[in-house]
Design goal:
Helix content of chain A: over 70%
Helix content of chain B: 25-40%
Radius of gyration of chain A: 22 Å
CATH architecture of chain A: Orthogonal Bundle
Number of strands of chain B: 9
Largest sheet of chain B: 6 strands, mixed
Low-confidence stretches of chain B: none
Strand content of chain B: 15-25%
Shape of chain B: globular
CATH superfamily of the largest domain in chain B: P-loop containing nucleotide triphosphate hydrolases
Radius of gyration of chain B: 18 Å
CATH topology of chain A: MetI-like fold
Strand content of chain A: under 5%
Order of helices and strands of chain A: HHHHHHHHHH
Number of helices of chain A: 10
Structural class of chain A: mainly alpha
Distance between the termini of chain B: 40 Å
CATH class of the largest domain in chain B: Alpha Beta
Oligomer: heterodimer
CATH architecture of the largest domain in chain B: 3-Layer(aba) Sandwich
Strand order of the largest sheet of chain B: 5-6-7-3-8-9
CATH superfamily of chain A: MetI-like
CATH topology of the largest domain in chain B: Rossmann fold
Amino acid sequence: MRKNLAHILPPLVTFLAVTLAAEAITRITHAPAFLFPRPSTVLRTIVIDRDGLAAAFWNTSQAALIGFGGSAILGILLAIALASSRLLRRAIFPYTVFFQTVPVVAIAPLLVIWLDPGLLSVTVSTLIVAIFPVITNTLTGLLSTDPALEDLFTLYGSGRLARLLKLRFPAALPSIFSGLRVSAGLAVIGTIVSEALVGQLIHGEGLGAMLRGANQSGHADRVFALVLLSSILGLVLFGAVNLIGKLLLKAWRQPCD
Amino acid sequence: MPTQIPPALTLGTIHRAFAGGVVAIENVSLEIPAGQFAAILGPSGCGKSTLLRIIAGLDRATSGSVNLAPQSRLAYVFQDAHLLPWRDVLNNVALPLELMGVAKPQRLSAARQFVEMVGLADAADRYPNQLSGGMRMRVSLARALVTQPTLLLLDEPFAALDEITRQHLDDQLRQLWKTTKTTVLFVTHSTAEATFLAERAIVLSKRPATIVADLPIHLGEVRPAELRGEARFAQTTQAVYRALARGEA
């Protein structure tokens, strides 16, 4: 408990200090509210529109989670396929860089046309944004197994599947999780950006669509409220992945040789 | 009738050159009788490990022949323990049997037996990161013995350990060899370790490795730890040392 507190308290204090400073500065300088809304105004906006924001938060969470889950599963499977053959790696890997470099702004509108505006087009753009770190980190992990352990598996006549399941995949898990952590943050950004581009979702508005609306109508307090909620979503997803990784990888924590 | 038992291992004029033209091993021929404890000595980087890997089938000789006795089972112990960090001691030891397709109850009971044999019964459910270096090496040894190998290959297995742990493990290895009666090939660069452990010291020259001496070590069957303080031990170690020094020249 004390240890948890030691982790949570310092960033919380930073947050409060920065927020209070912002409150003080905006009050003292009488900064225009449409440019620099006071934190207290932002808080009031959140409280007043809590139902609408909660619904949007939930919609965005769903899209981000589905997109992230999809990129995790597809990314790991793709990396396993790439790790199994040097030829495949040479033929395909350069194109996976596409996922890292393509701006979601460029493809989201096309995805909307191809897939209709809605959850599907948003999750697909999320997946495209979030998949690259999963692929590279998994691939690196799968290809950097201890050569002595590879020899050991060879010596006892291990098949390819046993080698993958009992050696390469578990050995790659720490690396896979560092990929997933990066990917979790990207997934939230990807979802919000594509929501903003797609606009109204079939099943309801997300944070991204609201963000666009608030920006266009010049409601800076709403913009800040939505940014705060987006950050919280990113933090929650990142934290969840981190926690699962830590619990799962207890035995991996210290290198054994 | 020892002559009727086929040798555990016969090497015929082994030659190994690497792609860059570096010759690691030149013209090594060797016969290891079944049940012998033989040490292979040589300067660091002379090709001892390469020779062991060729015997294990993990590397190929450029020319020459490797003949193992029929129905040989090989086991290999590396310089470091190389355990799977996500498996406890028992399941690390059971790994070779698992890969060979032995059913779970059998492989776990065999693993338990060998975990006990190396004195780690109390640590069977611990993970590698909870063990000391010496304990990890003992797990590695148990993992090699669990398949009841006919030929046990050890590549400087205790080189990374402190002197006390190392001598302790040498004592234990010698005991294990006496109970299992397996053939052992032990690569080391320590003349004292080779003298204490082996019946025979095969000394290799610096690269390209060739055999410069093949010395029998007559220090008896039972070798208590006190042997290390005796004059005959020092003399034998000296003889091995002189051969090693000749090979370095």
